[in-house]
Amino acid sequence: MTTDPLYLGLDLSTQQLKVLAVRSNLETVFEEAVSFDTDLPSYGVRKGVFVNDKDHEVYAPVAMWIEALDLILQRMKSRGFDFSRVMGISGAGQQHGSVYWAKDAESILSTLSPDKSLLEQLSLTAFSWEFSPNWQDHSTSSQLHAFEDLIGGPEALAKATGSSGHHRFTGPQILRFVQLRPDAYAATSRISLVSSFLASLFLGKIAPLDISDVCGMNLYNMETHSWDDRLISLAASPSGTDAAATAALYDKLGPVEPDGGKHLGRISPYFSQKYGFPPSCTIMPSTGDNPSTILALPLQPHDAIVSLGTSTTILMSTEHYHPSAAYHLFNHPTTPGLYMFMLCYKNGGLARENIRDAINAATGAHDHSWALFNKAAVETPVLGRKSATDPAKIGFYFPLPEIVPHVKKPGTYRFHVDGTSISEQQPTAWPATADARAILESQALSMRIRSAPLLDEKAPHPRRIYLVGGGSKNPAFAKVLGDVLGGYDGVYKLDVGNACALGAAYKALWAVERNPGETFETLIGKRWNEEGKVEKVMEGYKEGVWEAYGEIAEGYLQAEARVVRGEAKGQ
Ligand SMILES: Nc1ncnc2c1ncn2[C@@H]1O[C@H](COP(=O)(O)OP(=O)(O)O)[C@@H](O)[C@H]1O
Ligand SMILES: O=C(CO)[C@@H](O)[C@H](O)COP(=O)(O)O
């Protein structure tokens, strides 16, 4: 083994493929990215996906991801990256998306020639369907209700699988695939998640599913630690009673790897011969982008990570399996007995961008600068109240149907909340600039209210808020999130381009360098030095401010309930 090994972490997310390399001392030494829209324009995707509004489908071409992998490695090569030092690779993938391999996939993967590209060899015959459903897809209403009804409702499904039924979860997506494309399904030999698809390319054979990412399928029973036979049977055939179909789906899904640090095998000769990876380089399971993000730093109880990517998520680690239909629980990606708590908002980055663009357009500016948005967000008073007698301005900004809360009708909804009096407002009720603070407050209030069960009466607010993802560099976001969530040790930013690629690289490092039985937390904790890795960007808890948001919580939920019930008009 080289004396100064490197470990690669990749992140195959909605809009980009990113990679970074770390040394054994956790230092990040290299980063590279490929953007799907701008670097691979021939696919014609927008923000990484295709949208079919009529059927509520959102999906991405698998070939684009394959081409992105060769492109990012080529870019590393041309920048002089020393592949010969890479001892381990792990990855992260956007969650829930599924990839459908054809019968010949395994033999094509194991005989890839370095003289041709991955795309030339894989795109035509390795897949039974050329697309992968994206997490923003919401075409599976009837399927997700079938999942919930089978088990006894949303809470019962959450108890079994860690989540109630969700459009984007892979089980309902597979059932829809079975119903809509029976021929393609019959021609499918294996089904990967985006995470295990990425690991499969590096491994040169189909990789098992990951113990954490498998919880984003509505198929894996977290109480029994195994597939849920009832749900597998339903996903395999709408009647749920076709034993042969059930057995076939078990074969297509293949095994679940319980050890997040498992050495799945050596790197495929394609990559060692083409790029110079050592043949001994080991491939570890890839996990979901959110589980991977919680591996980017030693997260303590009561710490929260807010990921401000295309989606917005809040992530916490917990020892308790207290499932609820109001949030998601996943197995921890490295440590048995720990769980990841998550809320995922579809209207995250894109909804904030819409407000930014409206504010810019109102001033005649047509660029994508955040300057005016930020100025408005920090200058607008808490809850838009200029005086204590003003009603609070509460807005809900859902250009897409929302996951949390479950809102079917897209729209923008504005309310005045004054004690128990809640009245919907016209868009003219407040200036466009007031929306900047209102959207950040609204997103943060939803996180605060719904993550409260993870905190306790003695410590009702989080310790630290860590910001990651594209929006983490925005100081106005940090300010408002700090005001609402009130982390008593402050708001921090991870000083690294991509937290989930970093988490994946740390996972690869841990898998290769761990002593027998050494947990991820122990190994990373021993080597972790905060300096240069995290930066305090804002105070969190401010007396009086945090309490003001607490007082509005009930009114916020009532206004939100009107939107959920379809009683609000919206615009
Ligand atoms: N300075 C900024 N302020 C606010 N948001 C930003 C800023 N820079 C980038 N973003 C947002 O970050 C998002 C992309 O984040 P990223 O974590 O790369 O996404 P993903 O992992 O989903 O591909 C975009 O939606 C963009 O609006
Ligand atoms: O659906 C979820 C989580 O349940 C999303 O968070 C996806 O995992 C995609 O993430 P980004 O591409 O926004 O990072």
UniProtKB/TrEMBL annotation:
<dbReference type="GO" id="GO:0042732">
    <property type="term" value="P:D-xylose metabolic process"/>
</dbReference>
<feature type="domain" description="Carbohydrate kinase FGGY N-terminal">
    <location>
        <begin position="135"/>
        <end position="295"/>
    </location>
</feature>
<dbReference type="InterPro" id="IPR018485">
    <property type="entry name" value="FGGY_C"/>
</dbReference>
<keyword id="KW-0808">Transferase</keyword>
<keyword id="KW-0418">Kinase</keyword>
<feature type="domain" description="Carbohydrate kinase FGGY C-terminal">
    <location>
        <begin position="305"/>
        <end position="511"/>
    </location>
</feature>
<dbReference type="GO" id="GO:0005524">
    <property type="term" value="F:ATP binding"/>
</dbReference>
<keyword id="KW-0859">Xylose metabolism</keyword>
<dbReference type="InterPro" id="IPR043129">
    <property type="entry name" value="ATPase_NBD"/>
</dbReference>
<comment type="function">
    <text>Highly specific D-xylulose kinase which participates in the catabolism of xylose. Xylose is a major component of hemicelluloses such as xylan. Most fungi utilize D-xylose via three enzymatic reactions, xylose reductase (XR), xylitol dehydrogenase (XDH), and xylulokinase, to form xylulose 5-phosphate, which enters pentose phosphate pathway.</text>
</comment>
<dbReference type="Pfam" id="PF02782">
    <property type="entry name" value="FGGY_C"/>
</dbReference>
<keyword id="KW-0067">ATP-binding</keyword>
<dbReference type="GO" id="GO:0004856">
    <property type="term" value="F:D-xylulokinase activity"/>
</dbReference>
<dbReference type="GO" id="GO:0005829">
    <property type="term" value="C:cytosol"/>
</dbReference>
<dbReference type="Pfam" id="PF00370">
    <property type="entry name" value="FGGY_N"/>
</dbReference>
<dbReference type="InterPro" id="IPR018484">
    <property type="entry name" value="FGGY_N"/>
</dbReference>
<keyword id="KW-0547">Nucleotide-binding</keyword>
<comment type="similarity">
    <text>Belongs to the FGGY kinase family.</text>
</comment>
<dbReference type="GO" id="GO:0005997">
    <property type="term" value="P:xylulose metabolic process"/>
</dbReference>
<dbReference type="InterPro" id="IPR042024">
    <property type="entry name" value="D-XK_euk"/>
</dbReference>
<protein>
    <recommendedName>
        <fullName>Xylulose kinase</fullName>
        <ecNumber>2.7.1.17</ecNumber>
    </recommendedName>
</protein>
<keyword id="KW-0119">Carbohydrate metabolism</keyword>
